[in-house]
Amino acid sequence: MNRPGLKARVSGTPAAAGTGLDTSGTDLLDVLYLADIRCPLERANGIQIFETCHALASRGHRVTLLVRDDTRRPRRDPFEFYGLPAIATLRVERLPMAGPYALRRIAYMVAAVWHAWRWNWARGCVLTRDLGVASAVLRLPVMSRPKLVYESHGFAPVFARTMPELVQGKVAGGHAKIERLFRREERFWLGADGYVTTTGVLATELRTRFGDRPSLVTMSNGVRLPANRVRTPTSNAGPTVVGYAGHFYRWKGVDVLVEALGQLQDVHALIIGGHPGEPDVARVTALAQKVGAGSRITFTGLVEPSRVPSLLGRAHILVLPTVDTASAAYTSPLKLFEYFAAGKPVLASDLPPIREIVRDGENGVLFAAGDPQSLVQAIRRVQHDDALAERLARTAFAEADRYSWRTRAERLEAFLLRVVTTGFKTRSRGRGQAAREGLETVPDEELDPSRDAG
Length: 454
Fold this sequence. Notes:
Blueprint: E1 9-10, E2 30-38, H1 44-58, E3 62-68, H2 78-82, E4 90-95, H3 101-118, E5 124-128, H4 131-138, E6 147-152, H5 156-161, H6 163-166, H7 175-191, E7 194-197, H8 200-210, E8 216-218, E9 240-245, H9 254-261, E10 267-272, H10 280-290, E11 297-301, H11 308-312, E12 317-320, H12 334-342, E13 346-349, H13 352-355, E14 365-367, H14 372-383, H15 386-399, H16 405-422, H17 430-441
Parallel strand pairs: 1-4, 2-3, 2-5, 3-4, 5-6, 6-7, 7-8, 9-10, 9-12, 10-11, 12-13, 13-14
């Protein structure tokens, strides 16, 4: 099913020559990735989706990414934006959308269902991390659609309840929304042909709520690694520089880092990111001034993903200060794997999903989530022990190979092929009773007003 004659295509942009295909495999798929996002998107979900599609397409599978059109004019080329070569087997179809969000959402859902219905059901599959889109496609008759695989990054009712913690200014939904999201999660857990979770914590929770299921795999997010990479140790000349990359939402913990810097007068920081259209930037910069760290922090602002690795290379220590919230229990942060690949000592919040990757004193240092004083101690521990810093950095750099997008695509490919060839028929609702009983035992505080984070 390899299509060497195809040209790399982005709807609305010129075609480009394909390069870098790995067509060593013989079982190739038609993959339709459904993502109701504008493209390109600078946020982590946009990066993760495009990297996943590109890595699968690089292995010879024909991948179509169905997204909303870029809102900027002239349109940005997503391959250029993400710093990836255009390849013949990845087609980005961008749908022109206008009007209020609700109308755009409905228009995308209709297009997604239409594309899924017309997709190659014999050697194809639909992949998505959008629960609403997945639920809509699942309503198609099973013989009228290709195999459907859902990649879950969290439990929607919990995201819904904690929405105000996730994004400043957002409001929580109500009890009815929580119940609707719970039923939707249950229905898809029972009915999807394949199910991917990004953390073991999430897989365990879903099994506890809904029972076991076949065709389930856990694979973390990943990082792009250059060929023949070599670690370059950071010079110890000048002051210690602590680095952070990501958005400034409170749950990301950048406030914790800034407060810690207020107690570390000899430490500077390089903070990469922050969306200029959101109030979080003003909050964090004001905090930096308040604690007396403003003159020691360099804020780069929002940068293209392709620039992040070189910026991380300027730091001596990299920090992942995620705060302990209900939704953080599912986190598989891209920055953690980017930090590993940078070959620097990594300090990370001590949270269950982070412990799936970071082993304290071996490939990183764990500190108490949300505790600036604990972070201060972790920074001092690495700052004053060169042997420890070198060992942590060297181990993390080597282990980054486990988390490359290429390695992840190999695992995802094997899983998708297994799903397509063996399938998973929608089970009876026998487990539904237990799931409903699970809903009745969910604490009332988990059903408080909330909203889906997706």
